[in-house]
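ok so I'm stuck.
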Amino acid sequence: MTNHPIASAQTVAWFHPVSGIAGDMTLGALLDAGADLDYIVETLKALPVEGWALHREAVLRNGLAATKALVDAPEHHHHRHWSDIRDMLATADLPERVRDRAHRVFEALAIAEGHMHGVEPEAVHFHEVGALDAIVDIVGSCAALESLGIDVVASAPVSVGVGSITAAHGVLPNPAPAVVKLLEGIPTVGVDIDLELTTPTGAAIIAALAESVGPMPTMTITSSGYGAGGRDLPDRPNVTQVVIGETAGDKRGDIEHRQLVELSTNLDDITGELLADTIDELLIAGALDAWITPIIMKKGRPAHTVHALVAPDAETLVSDAMFRATGTLGIRSTSTDRYSLQRTTVTVSVDGHSIDVKVGPHRSKAEHDHVVAAAAALRRPARDIAAQAERLAAET
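replied:
not stuck anymore, here's the structure
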């Protein structure tokens, strides 16, 4: 446990669509987690639409207490083009993050609907998601995120049902084509329930706003909530869970502390060339650092351990890269703390050659690749180039 103050933390909302996700379930979950209903309503009043009301209701779903977000809006089948909604958001007096997040959600919907119908997003006219209750759900959810001060949105894999659904275009497969398009590249979980667990609105919220999809990020939990769907399911509560927390980054003076993850795997059947390529692949995938240590395995076999240091939200991408690059069958994951000094990068000129120099509180270090290139061009020893660059950086 970290005992010193958390000063540079971010507030995270991690959604767990265990029974899918929809706009009203998202809004209900955030209300249940502590979002201010009055703030949400006042924010929504900035939209140039009338005839709606938003309330909350405490309900049970399979014995689990949850909040149902209820939108009273008689206009359920009004069709609006994406351009209409975009203009509405642009002209409304909304907080900037609310406007940006709502725009991204509707834009994701327009792209998915356009792909489904073979038209450009500009030509898309929304059916269900253009209705007033859907607009309240989406913009209200973005206002709820702002009410809670959410900096980062993340999600667990998204649950989807089977069978068929009835929409404005008639009978469609479940999950709906727009949902499938929106969830491309996002981990999903198939559930054997003939019900639309994830709607296009819910899928768009995850696709547009979630910065990572996977296990709950490393954070200190501050609240949680459950947003209820409209009916009970046979074997699970029909809810979307949200967990709110603070990330573990903090700063003490010029020392930054972060909770990170170290991934590692042992290899006894890979060449040095491939090991070098693996380091490059891990860094490209998002590792903060990557390195190799020699080891002795059973029966005296020489081998290597490949390590990667990653932020929790990059763990899935980097572990996938490690599997691909090495062919390993298993990777270890260990939580670790990193303390690092603040640093800046200064660019200096050594006889006309630009060299980046990392400057910290106690030392400076010239970028090796830049030093080697300058040394070759100037026909001077690399150590002299590095010393001159570091001296120049100290003088700036």
